[in-house]
Design a protein that fits this description.
The chain is 46% helix and 9% strand. The chain is of the alpha+beta class. Among the domains are: 73 residues, no CATH class; 91 residues, Cytochrome Bc1 Complex, Chain D, domain 2; 100 residues, 60s Ribosomal Protein L30, Chain: A. It starts with 6 loop residues before the first helix and ends with a strand. Bound molecules: heme C (2 copies).
């Protein structure tokens, strides 16, 4: 029992417990007087001139309740933990019977649940998100997870509240494609709208009127006109030149009718003056990939999900030739640096070429998509490149012929899937 720093405290608690039980028993025993024949004495206290207290023994049903309670305590302490560090005859424990020994009821139940549900989760984890979203069993599981982990912020119907986005509409801060939703849930998001108080109240009023004009709300047109310039200088970098938003930053579209904080002049002024910081927590570590996958499918299936950018046909690896430089691209899953199942096949032409041309070297460059934190992404791109290096080595290419090349910009071009690639070329 980890609660006791040393044996002394266990003995101390045992002593106190035993003494208390014995003391209670003594008190009970000492009060087990029989009712004597003849007139009953009083305690001698008199209230209100004629109200006195008889010195009768306790009613026996009451007395027995006390004895039963004491008996229960003794039996309980003998079979369950509670008597100092004594584990009890049943050897039961809630979590750990000894530090690090995960044999208690909690772990047993978790294991049983993993055995029972693991295969179901795994089945869905391997399926495409859109297919999971269409499966009623998966949807019911997703809903239960959502109610447990997400409803407190997004609402039980996922319709959001001020500051918490509605997940059922087709308006997205970060994007509604299945893999983007999954990235949001696994890695979390930080929406940061910087404060612009330094512009001064008058200029802010101009830009707020401009923002309201964008979605057809009542505005002062002279101010809106001036605000346009202010917007171009201060806001367009994030919200876009046409204010249609930038999903990579989570900067919302300001031209539609959907508002995260509110569209009144007062609220927009508050947003622009003080800025906003908003955090969607990351769930990957806490829930694991399989549950995040189900949740992403559930959110995708709520109605606002957007089609994944049409999957690009895998570019046929260039045929190895003595001249020319074959290039292969290996595409990785969101947030993953493990070699995808088709990775080796894609690399084959490069490997063949390297074997046929002993002078050729191979350059490996990793990329990532634009979602999520840059620092994490760069690490990811590097690890993807490393995974390819290991695969090439395993396929028989000597390490000194592989050159790791960090690209100037590690954010890959193209759509998100295209961006998550490692380029392998012969030099
Ligand atoms: C502590 C509150 C909180 C919890 C819990 C939470 N979220 Fe969020 N979520 C947010 C906030 C706040 C944002 C908006 C972040 C921003 O403004 O940048 C957000 C954004 C999102 C988005 C992006 C929406 C868009 O428009 O792009 C998705 C998807 C999402 N959450 C799903 C979930 C799921 C699924 C869960 C449960 C696993 C969950 N959230 C739990 C607070 C929460
Ligand atoms: C650094 C990038 C950045 C700049 C610059 C920026 N914004 Fe934002 N803005 C954001 C982000 C991100 C959000 C979403 C905040 C959140 O998720 O809570 C946001 C939110 C808002 C909202 C709230 C929208 C809603 O739905 O409630 C308004 C209004 C807004 N910005 C106006 C402006 C104006 C006006 C400017 C220029 C004065 C500006 N922003 C400059 C990034 C930016």
């Amino acid at each position: 029992m980890s609660d006791f720093v040393n044996g002394f405290w266990s003995v101390y608690v045992q002593g106190l417990t035993a003494l208390s039980i014995l003391f209670c028993a003594y008190i009970l025993w000492a009060n087990m007087t029989k009712k004597q024949p003849g007139p009953v004495e009083t305690h001698g206290n008199v209230w209100d001139e004629n109200l006195a207290e008889y010195n009768n023994p306790l009613p026996s049903w009451w007395m027995w309740l006390f004895w039963i309670t004491l008996g229960f305590a003794v039996v309980y302490l003998a079979v369950y933990p509670g008597f100092g560090s004594n584990a009890g005859m049943f050897q039961w424990s809630s979590a750990e019977s000894a530090p690090g020994k995960k044999d208690g009821q909690y772990y047993k139940e978790m294991q049983a649940a993993d055995l029972k549900y693991g295969p179901i989760f795994d089945k869905y984890a391997k399926m495409d998100l859109a297919a999971v979203a269409a499966n009623p069993e998966a949807k019911a599981m997703g809903e239960r997870l959502f109610l447990t982990y997400c409803a407190q912020c997004h609402g039980s119907a996922a319709q959001g509240a001020k500051g918490f986005p509605n997940l059922t509409d087709s308006d997205w801060l970060y994007g509604g494609e299945p893999d983007v939703i999954k990235t949001t849930i696994s890695g979390g998001r930080n929406g940061v709208m910087p404060p612009f108080g330094h512009l001064g109240a008058d200029t802010i009023k101009d830009v707020v009127n401009h923002v309201r004009s964008l979605s057809g709300l009542a505005n002062d047109s002279a101010r809106a006109q001036r605000g346009k310039e202010v917007f171009a200088q201060n806001c367009a970098a994030c919200h876009g030149p046409e204010a249609k938003g930038t999903p990579a930053l989570g900067a919302p579209n300001l031209t539609d009718k959907v508002w995260l904080y509110g569209s009144s002049e007062a609220t927009i002024t508050e947003t622009v003056t003080g800025g906003r910081t908003n955090r969607m927590p990351a769930f990957q570590e806490f829930l694991g990939d399989a549950k995040v996958h189900l949740l992403a499918a559930y959110v995708y299936g709520l109605g606002g999900g957007q089609k994944a950018a049409a999957a690009q046909p895998q570019p046929a690896p260039a045929a190895p030739a003595a001249s020319g430089t074959p290039v292969a691209k290996v595409y990785f899953d969101t947030g993953k640096a493990e070699l995808p199942a088709d990775g080796l096949a894609t690399l084959q032409s490069i490997v063949d070429f390297a074997k046929a041309n002993s002078a050729a070297k191979i350059a490996v460059s990793g990329f990532h998509d634009p979602t999520g934190s840059q620092a994490v992404n760069e690490e990811l791109a590097k690890n993807r490149a490393k995974a390819i290096r290991e695969a090439l080595k395993a396929a028989g290419v000597a390490e000194d012929r592989i050159e790791m090349r960090k690209p100037q910009a590690t954010t890959g071009t193209g759509d998100n899937r295209e961006a998550r690639r490692v380029e392998v070329s012969v030099i």
